[in-house]
Amino acid sequence: MALQTQAGVSKKVQNKALVASLIGSSIEWFDFFLYGTMASLVFNKLFFPSSDPSVGLLLSYLSFGLPFFIRPLGGVIFSHIGDKIGRKKTLVLTLSLMGGATVLIGLLPDYNAIGIWAPILLVLMRLIQGLGIGGEWGGALLLAVEYSGKGRRGFFGSIPQMGVTIGMLLGTLAISLMSALPDDQFMSWGWRVPFLLSAALVFLGLWIRNGIDETPAFQEAKKTGNIAKVPIVDTFRYHWKAVLIAVGAKVVETAPFYIFSTFIIAYATNYLGYDRITVLNAVTIATLVTTIAIPYMGMLSDKVGRKPLYIAGTVAMMLFAFPYFYMLSLKSALWLTVATVIGLGILWAPVTAVLGTMFSEIFSTNVRYTGVTVGYQLGAALAGGTAPLIATALLSSFNSWVPIALYIVISGVISLIAVSATKETKDLDLDES
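Structure tokens predicted for MFS transporter (433 residues):
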């Protein structure tokens, strides 16, 4: 019911599946991170105006974080569909849902135009985005992993993770281009352009995904009748330990990431006095570095294993937490860029590269979509969307970056405890998990 079915799959079909997995994931995260960046620069002023800028920023980050708590619901809904009717059809639904919400965000009037309805509608669109992305990641991951051959799962499983950074890179570049506009034009209409242009990317992604067949692993499961009646029930009945491992392992992959990529924008510009373009450029360079590093980390995991690579990346990130903020405090564009490249570009890469593959190897085919999605999205809800909010609150309360650095260290400890409860899985067939 798993990798043995890949023997008859041509390399051309495998590569097509990889592209379908990557492009959809890239589009989803382009939309998602576009909002995250705008929450730091635009929405706090246009949709959540306040006499206290810190309050406006906190409300803006709250709107960014809320969808993380609806993502598990989206994950349950779409992973149920994915384990019942297939990965491909589900991925078309998730892409359509999030893409439509993103375009509508670009069309929303602001608070000055419609008052309280502006933030209400903005949050509604964000919740719809959260539903879509809740089911997207697991499907994109399985589209790659279930088409892979034995001994290449680490590489194949790392490709959808590149979509996270490619999407972020596209979003950051789009915002950088729009930021070249005078401030009044950027705040008036420039910020809307990337949201509206995402429509073209969505149509491209739907066209590519419609051209791929269902994964061989799911076809085999359907042929043998190995389809769970209620996947979420079977997941928690037979795989609850694996779900807990996935939730814990996700923490260090997501909390530091949002601090390195999203929180840094507001922190460096509002508190340390960096120029907005300088910060965006640093994040862009770091994102490019990690995009290149991820597939190599995936291939390395096929040789040394998922667990050793994950642990090494986690420990390195914990050790770098304090040096990272110290380098930012030097108020040098060079050190800002170096710190961001090390944290986001290098140390985060091995952790995210092996995460999806590691998750897919601890669940059986009939509940794999549900298992990886629920574990991933619960972890993201607990540690991802809350990270910029917690970091901002800590900064406001203590007026120091030290508690935020400790927060990164604690996230690493949690994940190390979780991953210690699992065994190395690189040599297993998926049907042995």
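The radius of gyration is 21 Å.
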